[in-house]
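Input chain follows. Return structure tokens only.
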Amino acid sequence: MVIAANYLPAALAAKAATQTIPIVFPSGSDPIRAGLVSSINRPTANVTGIAPMFTLLGTKNLELLHELVPKLTVIGGLVNLTNPNAEHQVKDLQEAARALGLEIIILAGGNEREIDSSFDGLAQRQIGALVVTADGFLFSRQDQIIALAARYSMPTMYPTSQFVAAGGLMSYGANLRDAFRQTGAYVGQILKGAKPADLPVLEPTKVEFVINLKTAKALDLTVPPNLIAIADEVIE
């Protein structure tokens, strides 16, 4: 038996529930800081997994968004504040914004109603662009968030390329499909007899930057050539 625990809240709950059943997680958080494992190379006890490290990319997300919309002064950060990693996400975004001379306003995204309400208040708060943080619930509300970003003409940076393929503007992060594929591979190895402690937590060897030029045009944005040049994928 193996528990495949998708994302940090499920992984923490599984770890609290058992110290014997193997647990394999995909989690965008730093697994050591989150308390899942004590070591990347030698996970302790019954827990190992895949760590795309989405939550460590807030600075780069803000930099790319600022480069696309250089005149903006206020950015919103959509965060599921019920996520165990939310405090770290907020702190990282605040530090990144401070370094760029920007003001960041944290917007609640813990349920559908909060997401709607946060978008409703964008204009009133004079928010000029938005960063969506990495979170399992926010991933599940992909279509809602993309539709709201289009309705409010809001330049938005997403944590994974799946958002951009579905019509979002830009993303910077590890490939989520690869993370789930690697999770499945680890589950298979454990079912064949491998021990979690012998399987190091896998980190991404590459992050990808994806731009959707169709969405940029709909937002009346001109993507600078230097951003197109560094993009791993450009959707036209």
